[in-house]
Amino acid sequence: MSIVAQKGITMALAQIQSIASRQSQSKRTKDLTNTLTAIHNLVKNYDGIVKLTTIVDKILGINNFKSETLDKLTSIQDPFKKVKSEGIMVALDDLYIDFRYQRDLKLKPLLNRLKKVGEFRMFAAGTIDVAVRYDTGEAKYFVWDGYRRSILAGIVGITHLPASIRHHDKNSTEKECIDIESSDFKIRNASNDRMSGEEIWKSELGHNVQSALSLKNLLNNCGLNVQRVLSHSATLTGFDIFRKAHDKKTPLSFPDKAIEEAAHMIKDVFNLHRGNVSSWLILSLAYVIEMTEETDDQGNPVYESISFYNDRFDRVEEIRNRLDHFVNKQAPKPKRTTYFTNDPYKNKEIETGVYRIVSQVLEVDDTDELKKLQTALNLPDDIVV
Predict the structure, then answer these.
(1) Alpha-carbon Rg of the chain, whole angstroms?
(2) Count of domains forming the chain
(3) How many CB atoms lie under 10 A from the CB of residue 280?
């Protein structure tokens, strides 16, 4: 066999191995996704409460999980196998998780961390926090801090963990128990950088914080989901700025009605009923919608060029039609939402988005009105967007 032929065979084998590796990785990713979907369905079916070992069993059922993950870890003897759920020990099989205030399970990073360390370290895991509820007439153990550590322990075969156990008053209702647990969970975790804005909001919902409940209502009216709290298929991105706008903590003002109209318009025009919807674009469009309503002291439109029609519904529909034309019909390929939010002027994402919509989608070219808008948005006269 010639050297050239040998090289050709070697290259072909390398390509086959590469393809097989990619296919294996793709299948593993699909298995992880399917497992997460199954877990999330469990959460929905059981009103947010799931037994911890049920999740462990789902993970252990992932294809090739033993050979690709467990077999590569340093083996560990379970030192607590024969201990009952008394004193400072708790059996994992006794634990439940209440996802109504807990953070989502991010399975891939969790497993990657386990593989990176190479073992489950008992002392590094520390003590989990457990609350015992009696609202159903019997003791039920809920891990309110440390459920992900508990899942990792269960995966490697540990059956018990040391725990800080607190008993709720036996006359406490489920709601009262959730209030206490979610409040403590927020205090424990929100003071450090481990919790995102979405996770803090979710924990506040469990504690019935009014601003969190109000935001949930707005998201529901917008048909948007965050942390799988709602049932909508479209997911909000950029949660923090959206919450600031809702809580009136932004320089610009965004009425809920305009936000709802903008969210539905974006989902329709960009076909994002099952995709990610940008907070920046929602708020930019909401501001534009509200601009069409703006009048001066004499009742005249502040922005004459975009104050078409007398009826708000007709004005919103006109904006929708123009946006649809600009996004889907004016160019060879449809534009993406990032067209309006990428490369903002000095990190002014919303202001830049507003100016792009007014000047390009609504085609306002009146110099005086554009200057008036630049002043309102604190943008320079010579801005190029």
Answers:
(1) 27
(2) 2
(3) 21
